[in-house]
Amino acid sequence: MSVLPLAAAAPALRVDYRPAPLEALLAEPGTLAVFGFGDAAPAVHPDPRYLHVALPAYGPPAFECWTVAGPVASGRHDGLAWSRGGGLAFAALALPDTADAAAVAATAYARLQAWLAASDTPHALRIWNYLDAITAGDGDAERYRRFCVGRAQGIGRALAPAELPAATAIGHPQPSGRFQLYWLAAAQPGTALENPRQVAAWRYPRQYGPQPPGFARAQLPASPGMPLLLSGTAAVVGHASHHPHSVPAQLEEILANLDSLIAAARRLRPALAERPGPGTRLKAYVRDPQALPEVAAWLQAHLPEVPALVLHGHVCRRELAVELDGVHA
């Protein structure tokens, strides 16, 4: 039996939140991507591995850093920034965010699909979407519902459940004029996971819009050197939002959902830790800026070993105050 090179056979990804100067982080070997948040981070940088996200951060400034084993190549092409190394790839694009969220999403996702098709890392494991006014509009005219329509149009075909990536969609708290899409891709597909406590998003009933959201609750990459990739997770049980008037109760429900997802992943990879801990990294997206200290304090009290970033961003349902995503190793 032939043995594949390590980078092809067993990609590894490390995610950390670090306060180091940006130039030092970009200079470190194996840096695949660095993300800065809000006004405390540089808005632009010539290195295509750096991406600024227009969500203000609460607490001491920190960068999110993705590191792989081995050398990293990077560049820009046709408005898209990319880097690749260790059997993984990062890519990002930004488009003007117009009134027609469906058209913008369709254009962005058509470009994503074209990039994947031409890449030696054709499997999108994890996708992030940031757009303005995510819950503006009523009924099927709501921008998140229109985004879901456009995402499906841009992909151009119905993805099988096993193909669905983990994903997050969050609204900028202030108008940015920008729709931002970035992703993590691999040479090998992962395993799409669903949460037994929740209806799969792609099976949501019609009351949530004409096009169900196209994502899995988590992705377990093929390589044991990769963490479990957790989608944006809110206080949803079945398909219904819970605890609309209580941030702590929503956080408790989210933690139950994360525990359920981790249990599902451990049936395939028992070496994963049973609960969030030192190998976990979380980002919290908080709708109300007045709730930022409360969420930060709750995370510190209930998950003291878990590094977390707390960001001001709007969840895709108006009644939901907070959402968590991240990785778990």
Kindly describe this structure.
The chain is an alpha+beta fold and about 325 residues long. The protein has one domain (about 5-329): RutC-like (60s Ribosomal Protein L30, Chain: A, 2-Layer Sandwich). It has six helices and 19 strands. The protein has helices spanning about 5-10, 20-25, 100-115, 145-155, 245-265, 290-300; strands at about 15-20, 30-35, 50-55, 55-60, 65-70, 75, 80-85, 90-95, 125-130, 165-170, 180-185, 190-195, 220, 230-235, 235, 240, 280-285, 310, 320-329. The strands form four sheets. Strands 4-18-17-19-14-13-12 form a seven-stranded mixed beta sheet, with helices on one face. A hairpin with a 7-residue loop joins strand 13 and strand 14 (about 230-235).
How is this structure best summarized?
This protein has 329 residues and is an alpha+beta fold. The protein has 6 helices and 19 strands. The strands form 4 sheets. A 7-stranded mixed β-sheet has the order 4-18-17-19-14-13-12, covered by helices on one side. Strands 6-7-8-11-9-10 form a 6-stranded mixed β-sheet, covered by helices on one side. It has a 4-stranded mixed β-sheet with strand order 1-5-2-3.
